[in-house]
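Section: Multi-chain targets

For targets with more than one molecule, the full set of components is provided together so that the structure can be written out for the assembly as a whole rather than chain by chain. Components appear in the order listed by the source. The example entry contains two components.
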Amino acid sequence: MKALKVGIIGFGTVGTGVYKVLQSFPNVEIIKIAVKNINKKREIENFDNNILTDNPYEIVNNPEIDVVIEVAGNVDPTFDILTTAIKNKKHIVTANKELLAKKGSELFKLAKENNVIILYEAAVAGGIPIIMPVKTILCANKISKIAAILNGTTNYILTKMSEKELSYETALKQAQELGYAETDPTGDVEGFDAAYKISILSTISFNKKVDINKIYREGITKITAQDIKSAKELGYTIKLIAMGQVLEDGKIDVRVHPMLVARKHLLAKIDNATNSIMLTGYPVGDLVLTGAGAGAEPTASSVVGDLLVLSAELESSDSPLPQAVCNHSEIADQIDIGETYNEYYISITASNNPGAIGIIGTICGKNNINISTIMQKGINEDNTAEIVVITERSKEADVQNALAELLKSNNIKNINNLLRVMN
Amino acid sequence: MKALKVGIIGFGTVGTGVYKVLQSFPNVEIIKIAVKNINKKREIENFDNNILTDNPYEIVNNPEIDVVIEVAGNVDPTFDILTTAIKNKKHIVTANKELLAKKGSELFKLAKENNVIILYEAAVAGGIPIIMPVKTILCANKISKIAAILNGTTNYILTKMSEKELSYETALKQAQELGYAETDPTGDVEGFDAAYKISILSTISFNKKVDINKIYREGITKITAQDIKSAKELGYTIKLIAMGQVLEDGKIDVRVHPMLVARKHLLAKIDNATNSIMLTGYPVGDLVLTGAGAGAEPTASSVVGDLLVLSAELESSDSPLPQAVCNHSEIADQIDIGETYNEYYISITASNNPGAIGIIGTICGKNNINISTIMQKGINEDNTAEIVVITERSKEADVQNALAELLKSNNIKNINNLLRVMN
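Its structure, encoded as tokens over all components, is:
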């Protein structure tokens, strides 16, 4: 068996993890590794710095290299680097969810033209096997729904807020101190990371190209300790859910936002930095896949897994893995958040007078919203009261109209939060 | 793309499910279906009975057929039928866990000699993608441990015993009435089915041939309502667990038995007929895969998934899927249950006198068993008492010795149950 020759672009936590795992596979030869800083001290035994370069084009233009492993992240300059690699007939293994979400169509088209393949198991949910299973052993299925926890940082923060009754700010700070959140946490806490991942996963599950720019995205920064407490009393846990579904008319609904998840739901039980994907399809029914969604080792499992499958296939045939070729010519018809139907949790601050609940009920009714629970949560010092409303299944646009109308009433002081509910 | 020509052997629930799902895939042509009774009325629209035969050899000897789907079950005569198919250069897709567990080595050897492959995703955990992921995208991992709920019938019975405080007998009867258990439930309730599945899964996960005859197997028939109640009080749920692990010395420990599973463990939350597999490997860490473990549709998902992957591969290359070839030349060195270490739950009936607990403590101590909890569960009419003991990690042989010694004491009336504990 001829050794597969690879170049690695990016040598941070994940790149180093991949390097270490590859040491057990003598049939893979690492030719070159592109890094930002050649002179940085590396904590790896018997490491020869001569393998390093600070010019990634030395890898993608190296005729000796068969496969480029890209774990550098970012769109710019990575997109240009990988298009060069593809034009030079190199197969790609990447963990770069942002690049695939934003430039996947272009990359896959170019890969097809050049008869190379792009594998990206590590781009979604780290070590959890999901991309290859959806493309191979689950391919008999019509997948109709995905609901997933795809971001470990936000799940960690929400878990600590719930366990220790912390504010968002305190939980974020602790997550940063422990390395679960970055100094600039925007990509995680505002839901960008989860949106990249659900765009990729929805595209391969529904066989239609999902546009990242049409995904509704809402992060966890507005979740308060009071929301978590109220949710708990009602039998729910708050999770950042990335979801995608095919509607009856064939339109596609893809979004990322926090949800109240019923305590008996398997996703409600996924704590800390763990990721979990619930996938519904015919004929398979419901599947739930749970594991580490990030970290050097789980990510390396997927990167090296892709590489070894590719290596075995290249050994047996010149043509790429047929099931691994992306070919989503059809564009998903994505609906706007206003067109979606959900159950809702609404937290309202109202005047503490007998009319407040009547007004909420009346305005909801006028807007076609049936209320299933309404709870007063105690009186504030300024004689206002916190009121929590749970609605039956309603149209988002109707709910938004009702909230606007509520805010015009003298009795309603503030809409504190609007969250969707998953039972 | 040339249509793949298949023959189906077995046309019960699963066979019919496979037939129905295949109607959506015009590139698969069903040439012949072997059934027991040709004249039986089939509940399938536009079904042409001419496709049926009661002689499966008409399928395996038919030169037109490329792939044989076997969903008939049993070892005899299925083994002979499939060996004939393989010698006739037909690829096999099978759901037959018993056949693979008992005759897998012979079949895979023959398949290799004839350059055909055997796929069997449906043989373990129905619709849950586990066989192909372990062989492909997870192949960078050293898998060290599997703990799984692989039998839906027993999980359903144990769930109902727990939810409704039923006896085993009542829960079994209800499961039979609802179609969750067969008239002769032995294969499920005595753990045979789970043992077949864990032998297959351990073999591919540990890359060593596990011998079904060396798997310790204990069913759920001796679990009482009192055991379930005591377990609950202690924070546990009782589940039939199929487990396999690689020990530090490289020996393999594979077994099937009921366990007290700590309530916070993800497997404790798997209810009714659902299956779930927890797999621990390096570098991936812990993965939990959950879904329907049986039923026509989930099983068809795996059978048709195998078939479509095979079809795509045959289209691109003459050689079989490299990653799908079984090649476990090494034999697992399986340890006996006496050599295993576990925490234990022991239910004892003792005389209601002050010496009983002292005797239990003394005899456990003499046999190197540390007790972590000892609880008296109430006094019986005959002035005996139920005592529940939870031990720290101990050697099974020591525990068995202690139990034999306890039974010799006048104060100990009975050992009601001995169960292992998973935290």
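The mean pLDDT of chain A is 95.
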